[in-house]
Amino acid sequence: MAKGHRSQIKRARNANKDTRPSAKLSYARMSVQKACYVLDVIRGKDVQTALGILTYNPRYASSVIKKLLESAIANAENNNGMNPENLYIAECYANKAPTMKRIKPRAQGRAYRIEKRNCHITVVLDER
């Protein structure tokens, strides 16, 4: 058990929070693997290059991640007062979310399980 008053514990916990601008999308309707194909391409790139890549990438995940990146840029501009020209993608990753299980009827009274996978996508920006 932690020592100290509740407010001291909260203050200590909030002191080591990450102050970099970020955006998170929870329960995105795609698998982690499909999201990671797009995230691997834009990781470490500056924001303008990443937006160009996402605009012309034919995958479905790229349209979702482009919206998320634009949200992170707006967070950096409005909440942290950063210049969008100096921003780059410091971190971007996708984590597994709960899977929806569905049943598909098959021949002779059998049933196959269909797994509709979800993921949580996070984009963290930083200044150069």
From TrEMBL:
InterPro entries linked to this entry: Ribosomal_uL22 (IPR001063), Ribosomal_uL22_bac/chlpt-type (IPR005727), Ribosomal_uL22_bac/org-type (IPR047867), Ribosomal_uL22_CS (IPR018260), Ribosomal_uL22_sf (IPR036394)
SUPFAM superfamilies tied to this protein: Ribosomal protein L22
GO terms classed as biological process: translation
GO molecular function: rRNA binding; structural constituent of ribosome
Region (Disordered): 1-21
CDD domains: Ribosomal_L22
GO CC annotations, alphabetized: cytosolic large ribosomal subunit
Biased composition (Basic residues): 1-14
Tree of life domain: Bacteria
Keywords, in A-Z order: Ribonucleoprotein, Ribosomal protein, RNA-binding, rRNA-binding
Function: The globular domain of the protein is located near the polypeptide exit tunnel on the outside of the subunit, while an extended beta-hairpin is found that lines the wall of the exit tunnel in the center of the 70S ribosome.
Family to which this protein belongs: Belongs to the universal ribosomal protein uL22 family.
Assembly description: Part of the 50S ribosomal subunit.
Protein name: Large ribosomal subunit protein uL22
Organism: Blautia hansenii DSM 20583
